[in-house]
Amino acid sequence: MSFRELSIAGAYEFTPRQFGDDRGVFFEWFKSSEFTAATGRPLELLQANCSVSAAGVLRGIHVTLNPPGQAKYVTCVRGAFLDVIVDLRVDSPTYGTWDSVLIDDVDRRAVYLSEGLGHAILSLKDQSTVMYLCSLEYTPELDRDINPLDPDLAIDWPTHGRDGSPLTYQLSDKDAAAPAFADWAVQVADRPKTALPRRNYLSTQTETLEDQDFGRSVD
User: Fold this and answer.
1) Does the CA dihedral 138-198-9-80 come out positive or negative?
2) What positions carry a catalytic annotation?
3) DSSP code of 140?
């Protein structure tokens, strides 16, 4: 498994090594030891979620007030999404910036975002399915939303799906009514400050998986 830290500290892209034969394919989409080596911390798993989206469905920007915050490890098991991470930590040098990763059922990448970062996904194909591991159970009183189409953030959302068809964005009523990014600093003005993750200057890491027999793990 290889990893890459994104332009926002505390956000990573993980790319698994895939093993295919005439039966199909096997890969490890999360491995605790490799995750900890890459990020310098373990992922405490308290909830796992799955959502299925039609092409054009735009979910987010969602964030959990920090502290305690909610870290997420996200992957796509069917179809494709643009996964967007937004730095909402007001004391961060990259505050207000965003980065993105294409997650799909071809390269099978995963994205990790630490506490305090905003998250949004855009489905690029019907029936696209995302799964994510969470460090905190759903806590609605701590949930906050920011409009993903806010021009101040200027997120470069794709306008066409994976098949080349034009996308019509579909937002939930809650996401469509979410406040602008400019209101975010006011919402968190009285929150206690938390330490920012340290950047990992080892930008990639590759796991050697030679000579392992994955037939024992897959029926």
Assistant:
1) negative
2) 62, 132
3) G
